[in-house]
Amino acid sequence: MACCYQVSLGGGIVVVAASSFSVNSKLKPIPFLKAELLKPMASDLSPDRSIFHDASSSSPRRDLVFIVNPRGANGRTGKEWKKLLPYLRSRLGKNCNICESLTSGPYHAIDITREAIREGADAVVAVGGDGTLHEVVNGFFWAGKPVTNHNREATRSTALGLIPLGTGSDFARTLGWKNDPCEAINRIAKGLRSPVDVGEITGESEEESHYFINVADIHLSAKAGYFASRYKRFGNLCYVIGALQAFMGHKNQDLRIKVNEGEWETCSLVTALCIGNAKYFGGGMKITPNADPSSGNFEVVILQDFKWYDFILKLHRLYNGTHLSVKNVSSRSVISIEVEEISGSGSIYVQSDGEHLGFLPRKFCILPSAIEMIC
């Protein structure tokens, strides 16, 4: 593996050594995504040595790892991050050891996050859009369990931070945050933590669990998200293009659901089924308006027997969150839900946080207070 700088986190001191950053070679990619995406790449934490404190200093300092997707938003994320660095250094440099890591491909952020947690980072901060946040959240888990610090005497866990700089920042909208990276840095400087729930997704096989923090969805909306990912160069317009492409050949489908380990029930002519840990998806659509990432429950919203013109006539309701009063829209609070198709076609799309996961069947479970978030 290429030689790079390794950061040993813990004890308030960052030690920089010329060695390769250790990565478990057996790390798996996110399950359910097969040959369509690249395999995980090696982690590379690059310390910002200009702000590391002297080893003789006795004052405790927080170890922060900033994971940046420089290609996010057609390269805008990388450019904005460079502009933001001087303010970040001036605001955090006195009290924090800052480690910058630029991702080099899909799953890279997962690897970096796992290694940072194992090395005892105070926080891992996702810099980018919902896609980067999604990978970082998945990095908090490994083999169905939370990743933990190698130092068993550690007094607190690694927190999750967020600086929204990507195409979409739907999770930040739920928290009521402005699209202001300087404001995000001020939150990180304060370091206040609050527990947030995480959703866990499993399939019918024994594949590793997948995790999401925002919204998971099924059928038309998931198919639209799949196509939208191909047009991210157009910014938020990609969601409109993706929806138009998804409508081509779309058919509402009968699905079976099992809520909270109860009895199976049939939902006829389902257009979309959304499982919300948070409120927004698709670039600002308030699809699960009652969802709260600290409630210990999902909000499940089901749209049934929608036609293409229904979306045109009711689109404003979907964006402002008033669609729950519309005919053929239902909502319920759940802690788990299993979904499978009846036709057996194997073509019902599933996604979470805008990432394509494959097709039904799937089971979705809430993990209450699974991660502490800097907010």
Please characterize this protein's 3D structure.
This protein has 375 residues and is α+β, with helices and mostly antiparallel strands. It is 23% helix and 32% strand. The protein has eight helices and 20 strands. Strands 10, 11, 12, 13, 14, 15, 16, 17, 18, 19 and 20 form an eleven-stranded antiparallel beta sheet that branches. A five-stranded mixed beta sheet has the order 3-5-4-6-9, sandwiched between helices. Strands 1-2 form a two-stranded antiparallel sheet. Helix 1 packs parallel to helix 5. The radius of gyration is 21 Å and the shape is globular. 44% of the residues are buried. Mean pLDDT is 84; it is low at 1-43 and 48-59.
Characteristic key phrases:
disordered N terminus; eleven-stranded antiparallel beta sheet; 8 helices; alpha+beta; five-stranded mixed beta sheet; 375 residues; 20 strands; single chain
